[in-house]
Amino acid sequence: MCRPKTGARANVAQLGTIARRTTTPGIVHVVFEMTSDGTGVFKTSDIKGDNDYVKAIVTDGLPTGVFAVTLKTKCVRFAYIDISTQHPAPTYYGAGAKFIVGAAFPEGPNPDQPVAFASFRYRDTTDTIVAPPPNLTVTVRLDVQTMQTRTR
Amino acid sequence: MAYGQMTSTMMTSGSGVISILFEITANDVGEFTIAGVKGDAGIIKNIITGGGAPPGVFFVELRMKVIRFLYAHGQMIHSSGVPGDLYMGPNAPRGFDENDRNAGAVQIFAYVEGGVNAVPAPGTVFLCCLDVQTENWGTR
Questions:
Q1: How far apart are alpha carbons B133 and B15 in whole angstroms?
Q2: Cβ contact, residue pair B79, A103, below 8 Å
Q3: Model's pTM, two decimal places?
Q4: How do residues B29-62 score in pLDDT, each as one tens digit?
Q5: Is the peptide bond prior to A114 cis by the omega test (within 30 degrees of 0)?
Q6: Could B21 and A79 be called an inter-chain contact, meaning their C-beta atoms sit closer than 8 Å?
Q7: Cα A81 vs. chain centroid, distance in angstroms?
Q8: What gap in Å lies between CA A29 and CA A49, rounded to an integer?
Q9: Which of A26, A39, B109, B118 has its CA 20 to 30 A from that of B32?
Q10: ipTM value of the model?
Q11: Is B126 within a domain?
């Protein structure tokens, strides 16, 4: 393994965020955080840390409490998906409720737009999908197996 | 298989750590089998069910022992409105029989609906992540 470069020799790739960068062949780790607006809706402009790998946050046409992440490319498959909800003090609102992973389409649900698509649903303690609270921060992890790589 | 043409499994940038990312699909009767595993690059020796374990519980046995499971988590892909989640069970880094040189590390998962063990719907997909510390590496 190469030693990380520092100072003037630093490589931009080594100093960037984790998204789009990996030393594990075939897998890209896309990790980012975002905070919903005052109505509990997530928007593409809310994303931080994805290194511009996320194409868009999609909510149009989806039920309340559901959003989808589309990447700029399609992939062979999603190797791993995770979402974590931050419950800020002092109220820890929504404790017990959480986002769950919804549908995953490595090549997207629309053949005309072949981009990786993963959706998430906010589920309360009764397993009902409901609107998330406003100003909710989540962290998302998408590990995708890139095209041109194989799976046993 | 050429370097760079596999999935991430068995490759790592963290010394002594292997990240095992795989997907497992319940078969046509809701059972978990090794045939339902995809993307592990062969590091999983077997998927074990039955043997007195509740329905929906499966054991992931690796091909080798490990020092510890650094991180393990599973996610259910909720493609339909079916409730349920994949829960973490205990693990056995040295296998169930440490003296058995062929025993591999085991991580247990359980599918749960409404707080009780259940059989998932056929075709339900789960994604699992196992980061393991391999042998011959120290820990502070």
A1: 9
A2: yes
A3: 0.83
A4: 999 999 999 988 889 999 999 989 999 999 999 9
A5: no
A6: yes
A7: 8
A8: 12
A9: A26
A10: 0.82
A11: yes
